[in-house]
């Protein structure tokens, strides 16, 4: 019997509730901590332990609820969480302030794009709540961003799960850990790169906007 099947049988025998309510556990885990759970869901789907469509739907709902959770924290708690954790050093403070200005200009776009970044997601969700951003609009953009994020992450987990199945020497649990860790690292690197490019684009936009303002001021002074 393949190792993974043995592990599944062992879980089913010792923790029947975990298998019986697997989608509920996926929902709760995705709501609390989506990143690793979504990758795991894709991995399990590739091995046939969960069905693809229900698993994706559950992960999307969980990510959606996670966005609501952080929005409500900002709505009732204000900007205190961001001030406490997001402005603890000059570099972080500058990034948060740049994202804040971007949010004021392109609120919906900010919610969608920061879903694909590392560490800016929570700050943006809290920011939206603290600004009392329209809840219906927030829900819409939260869903769109979450759908994209879940699709990417779930697919990576699924592909690496297929890669695991393609390996013939699967008699060591280390292979499972290796493929899961590889999937997690890949998505982590993607988020870090996307965050870096996203912040870089925000900074460039800020500079162009400032240059535009200076140019208009110069024209106004020249014509006055």
From TrEMBL:
Cellular component terms (Gene Ontology): plasma membrane
Ranges for domain VTT: 39-158
Annotated TM spans: 23-45, 52-73, 110-128, 140-161, 173-194
Location in or out of the cell: Cell membrane
Location (main, coarse): membrane
Membrane topology according to the record: Multi-pass membrane protein
Keyword terms, alphabetized: Cell membrane, Membrane, Transmembrane, Transmembrane helix
Domain of life where this protein originates: Bacteria
Pfam annotation, one family: VTT_dom
Protein name in the entry: VTT domain-containing protein
Organism name: Candidatus Yanofskybacteria bacterium RIFCSPHIGHO2_01_FULL_41_21
